[in-house]
Structure formats: structure tokens, C-alpha cells
Amino acid sequence: MMEHATDHGIMLFDTAAAYGGGASETIVGEWLAYSGNRRRVTLATKILPPFSPASVDAAVNTSLQRLNVATIDQLFLHRWDPTAAEEATLRALDGWVSSGRVRTVGASNFSASQLAATLALQTNFGVARFQVLQNIHNFAVRGIDETTRSLCTRHQIDIVTYSPLGAGFLTGKHEGGVQPGSRFDLIPGHQNVYFNDLARQRLARLKNVSARSGVPMPTLALAWAFRPTHTGTVLVGGRTPAQLDQALRAREFADVALLRELDAG
CA dihedral defined by 99, 73, 150, 10, rounded to 10 degrees? Predict the structure, then answer.
């Protein structure tokens, strides 16, 4: 999958300490070592709260070891936690940037108000500021609104979104119930994000437009997420090269009127 991605010009690889209990970082690190692609790719990973100088240092050192690299290009705080806004935490992150072992720091799963408050503290303390925001954003669940976009534009923060197919929700495969072995089955806590009235209404809208246009639901959902007005970078995943190819095709989807029809509902 990673070879297939780079062969098609995908050069941002995103992982996290939490994925597979560190196994994902190890797999990415092994591939980087034998593929010789380290200099070509942008490497991102995330660390979990609670945050403190000791926990940040331990987590970053562990990620560096598993990834088998000297530098992490983008280090994200995986989700909001009050300890993210503590001076000691922000200075610890700044220390990693100053050392050159981390190129940029970012926030993941932060609201606009949480991001704004933390940015103000970083400016006040004179430490490295967040340069990237990574939030969920797809046709069913919107994690990037106009307030967030304006904030990021004002502070020159890049936006990265994830889960353009909603862990399969937007393919319609869970309409009859959660599929065994799926992410919703393995991590039941994620069900509440999607299995609600608003997300179901949007899914029904997607299904209706797909049926009338003949364009598959995954293609429409991916194309909607790829629209430049929605975000800067979209993270895509998959189990097979064919699923990655599906995303690459959707990136070239040109029927703007059909996408506007989705938004009209």
C-alpha cells in the first residue's frame, strides 16, 4: 500500500502512537528503512494525553525509535486535553522543535476555541506555535467549520482532515447494522459519532443523489471531502491498492454541480 501510494505521488504518511499500540509506527518505520523514501515523504505522528514534559519526552522518544528516524516532520497532540494548554507542556514541545528532532507541532481533534486559546498561550510564552490542525471532516460529520477555517487562515495554519468515508459509514455498508470486524465493531465508542439523526440524514441525502446520478456513494463522499474549499489535505486509508485507486479517481471528480446538489440538502 505504501509503495502504491508513493508511486502515485502521495508523500504524506500519517500515523500515531495509539494505532495498533505502536505497531503502525513500527510498520511505517520498517518500510521507510528499506524503501529509501525517508527524504521524499512528510512523516506525521501523534501522542496521547495527558501531557507533561515527562510524558511528551517519553512519547516522542518512543515514536522516534519505532519509526526509526532522526526527525518527525509533524508531531500532533492527538486530542484536546487541559494539559495541552499548560506552560510546561508547551515549552516541552518547543524544546523538541528547537532541537530539530521535530520540525513542526500540530493539534488534532481541537475545537476552534481550544485551538485559539492554545495559540494565544504559545504566542505569550514565545514558544513554537501549532502549524497544522488535523480534524475529522466528511459529508456526515463536520469537524471544520467557518470559524475554524478563518482562525487557521489568520494564523497560517494548514488544515488536514481525516476519515472522508466515515470509517465506511458513507459507503452505506452499516445501514443494516454495524458490520462485524469493522472499526465501529472493534471500537464501539466511535458509533456515537455517526449513528445519530443528523449523520443519518446526510447519509440518506448522499444515497439519494448517488441513486439519481449513478455515481457510487464512496466516489461522491470522497469527492466532496477533496473539494479545495473544504480543506487543504485529506488523509485517506484503505486495506487494498484498489481502495486507494478509488480515492485517486475521486480526487479528479469534476461534476461540481452534483457536489453542490449534495450541499443543497
Answer: 170
